Amino acid sequence: MRAITVQDRDAGVSGLTLTDLPHPHAAENDVIVRVHAAGFTPGELAWPSTWTDRAGRDRTPSVPGHELSGVVAELGYGTTGLTVGQRVSG
Predict the structure, then answer these.
(1) What is the pLDDT of residues 44-83, one digit of tens each?
(2) CATH architecture classification, 2-89
(3) Distance CA 50, CA 12 (A)
């Protein structure tokens, strides 16, 4: 999969690069969305969650974009209320 990513906190928006990443797979209660459009604000680069997960582990390269629309591509075990191929936004 190709995504715009950030790896350097100090680089700001000039640190955004197009990167090839492995396709994600849905874990329990997860949804994988094939994103058709995403919204990004430069302020996201200052959010702690852009750089570390809840356990404090490094998340780089991180894919910014907190608003999206696309199609459900995969559902993890136990996920309910959605179907593969369904259009979604969030």
Answers:
(1) 999 999 999 989 999 999 999 889 999 999 999 999 999 9
(2) Alpha-Beta Complex (3.90)
(3) 12
